[in-house]
Amino acid sequence: MRLLQRLAEFAFSTVFICLGAAFCVLLLVTMNVVVSLLATCTVLVVIVTVIALVVLSGFKNGMYEAIFTIIVVGMSIDYAVHLAHFFNEAVGTRYEKAREALHGVGVSVIGGAITTMGAGVPLLFCVVMFFNTQGNFVFFTALAAFGHSFLFLMPLFMICGPEGSQGDLTFLLRLCGAGKKRAPKAERTAAEPIRV
After folding, report:
1. Span 181-195, mean pLDDT?
2. What's the pLDDT tens digit per position in 19-28?
3. What is the DSSP letter of 193?
4. Consecutive H or E run containing 137
């Protein structure tokens, strides 16, 4: 029992480490803090949904569940990353950017979700518990990631997604760099004596 408890604790701590790493990767890819935060929140909601679906399906806190909980992070980020990247690259209002993201990559995300869920379905009929558990996790993760990407992330982008240079990391870095360059110059002129 103690081993299973430690496995569960390890799985959840690893999930939070992976979420932090996912945020950093999203930040490097999109160079936008707001987009990265919204996509990472979506991944967190997907993980919670998958764990809830697995528990509702009757699975207990076992070794296989701990292993697949860690894998869920990598699988759940896929659709959110694609939509977030397309949203970030689009121009216009929030609504126009979200519409362009859906037009640009929506069909690919739907196709990816269908094939991933289809890959999990045969595993649901396996007698070996490892493969049956894996099938449930794959199916639920693809289903939750697909649903939350379209029904949670895209409405979030339409409501509070960045417009213009909001959350743009390069813009913020340029502002910080410009502020640093101006500060020493102002100090130098203040230190110089005033000539009459």
Report:
1. 51
2. 999 899 889 8
3. P
4. helix 129-148
